[in-house]
Write a structure and sequence with these properties.
This protein is α/β, with parallel strands linked by helices. The chain has a single domain (25-263), classed as NAD(P)-binding Rossmann-like Domain (Rossmann fold, 3-Layer(aba) Sandwich). The chain has helices spanning 34-45, 57-69, 88-99, 115-120, 122-150, 171-191, 223-236, 248-257, 260-263, and strands at 25-29, 49-54, 74-79, 104-107, 153-158, 196-203, 240-244. The chain is globular, with a radius of gyration of 18 Å. The model is unreliable at 1-22 (pLDDT under 50).
Length: 268
């Protein structure tokens, strides 16, 4: 599961370091994704405290080293496959202890998968749904309960515009993101009154390793631009839905309004 020990359990008492006079504490789940890494660079420049989680040890440590150079006050890491939900409670308890508390949890895990393969192999479709929906639900449920108990915090979750309407070209990925968006909508409604903000982030196509090789990828949004918008919104501590770049809100409004009789004839 992990190449680093996770000594705390969900029920273990927290023994936080004294970070009362330092900047915000960020837990980043899926820290090696292009968008997450670009966002972390902005936080590092502000002297933030960061706990990074990823499944590839070399990539996680490379990101951590870069953030330390960029000015992060504190960076700790865990190498974990977040698909293994049985380890979530221990991981989160360990991260919160390491940071000395938690202000922002940024969930950026996800896979695109292969639509054509998912159409023929049910197990591949299940893997996409598990990584993009089931595992995030496990993490968010535990994190939301912790933040409700402490009375504050922000949950920022990367969903996608692909979840706004199923398209034949990526409906398995899209349905996983639609489920995640619906979950965060309901979670927001539950915890907002408890002082916890839930921000659902819906990027359009972004130029990252996940989209490399896709048709038209040279025109996709730059991670740094997307990250700046995301970081600014998270910094406000408000929940809601964020389309990024903002032009995707009117685009998806139009796409959702197309009658099904017309939509199914389009090559989307």
């Amino acid at each position: 599961m992990a190449t680093q020990p996770i000594p705390e359990s969900a029920d273990a008492p927290l023994r936080p370091r004294d970070l009362s006079h330092t900047p915000k504490r960020y837990l980043v789940l899926g820290a090696t994704s292009g968008i997450a890494e670009a966002t972390c660079r902005l936080w590092a420049a502000e002297g933030a405290n960061l706990f990074l989680v990823g499944r590839a040890a070399d990539k996680v440590e490379a990101v951590a080293a870069d953030l330390r150079v960029r000015g992060a006050a504190y960076v700790d890491t865990a190498v974990v496959d977040l698909n293994e939900t049985q380890h979530h409670a221990d991981l989160l308890a360990h991260a919160i202890t390491s940071l000395g508390g938690l202000d922002v949890a940024y969930l950026a895990m996800g896979i695109l998968g292969e639509q054509s393969r998912a159409e023929q192999e049910p197990t591949h479709a299940e893997n996409i749904l598990h990584t993009n929906f089931t595992a995030p639900v496990s993490l968010l449920t535990t994190l939301a309960n912790f933040m409700v108990k402490q009375g504050h915090g922000t949950l920022a979750v990367l969903s996608s515009v692909a979840g706004d309407r199923g398209r034949k070209s990526n409906y398995v990925y899209g349905s996983s993101k639609a489920g995640l968006t619906a979950f965060t909508d309901g979670l927001r409604n539950r915890v907002d009154r408890e002082g916890v903000a839930v921000l659902t982030i819906k990027p359009g196509p972004v130029k990252t390793s996940m989209t490399a090789g896709m048709k038209g990828s040279e025109k996709f949004a730059a991670p740094a631009k997307v990250a700046k918008i995301i970081a600014d919104r998270i910094g406000k501590g408000t929940g809601g839905i964020l389309y990024v770049p903002g032009l995707w809100w009117p685009i998806m409004t139009v796409i959702k309004a197309i009658p099904d009789s017309v939509f199914k004839k389009l090559n989307l």
